[in-house]
Design brief:
six-stranded mixed β-sheet; Purple Acid Phosphatase, chain A, domain 2; 5 helices; alpha/beta
């Protein structure tokens, strides 16, 4: 199965159109959305967006998605927030939100909360679906200071998922491999960026070309 990977939509209506074009053109099975679907609301826009995507959709909320957004995600998509599901032989699970930021956004957690909430979801060789990156991996904003979660890093090092998907940091799009674990930040969908997750015999990720209007 092959999935479009989107993050950081930030309430851009245009994303649905080009995302569906990619789903059709690449014959994809659906979409995995890594949060920041809305831009500080309204929560119901998340349902509108997710309901407009073709195929099966999986999602977590982001730090800019306000209280109430998760219920709308669950109405139109399969939530992976503090949950996991089986897709063929693979397990997907994860968590939305982020560690504290300088912007005091509505869906932030302490590192202790992240550790306590995410640990029960973790298992070896899973596909980890997050909004917030692990500390030191695809987490560099323009300031040049790492802002990822140290708790996520510790859990990744302990459980060793196959693939870690995250967004949150618009400036640090990319794919890196560390200790046999593949990390991908597909970049902000609001700027036309996306990625691809292929769950074949060996799971793979790739970055897709930027979509321009």
């Amino acid at each position: 199965m092959r999935f479009l990977v989107l993050s950081d939509v930030h309430r851009r209506d245009k994303v649905v159109k080009w995302a569906n074009e990619l789903i059709d053109d690449l014959d994809l099975d659906g979409t995995i959305v890594l949060g920041d679907i809305t831009h500080f609301g309204p929560p119901e826009w998340a349902a509108e967006f997710l309901g407009g995507l073709k195929g099966k959709t999986y999602a977590v909320p982001g730090n800019c998605d306000p209280p109430g957004t998760l219920a709308h995600i669950e109405h139109k998509a399969i939530s992976l927030h503090l949950k996991k599901v089986n897709i063929g032989k693979y397990v997907l699970g994860g968590m939305g939100g982020s560690n504290p930021t300088i912007f005091d956004t509505p869906n932030e957690m302490s590192e202790e909360e992240i550790m306590d909430r995410l640990r029960p979801v973790m298992e070896r060789d899973m596909i980890l679906v997050l909004h917030c990156p692990a500390f030191g991996v695809l987490d560099l904003p323009f300031s040049g200071k790492h802002v990822g979660s140290v708790s996520i890093l510790k859990l990744v090092e302990e459980f060793k998922p196959m693939i870690v998907l995250s967004g949150h940091i618009h400036e640090d799009r990319g794919i890196v491999e560390r200790d046999g674990i593949i990390f991908m930040n597909p970049g902000p969908a609001k700027e036309g960026y996306s990625g691809l997750l292929e769950l074949g015999e060996v799971p793979k990720v790739e970055l897709l070309e930027q979509h321009s209007d």
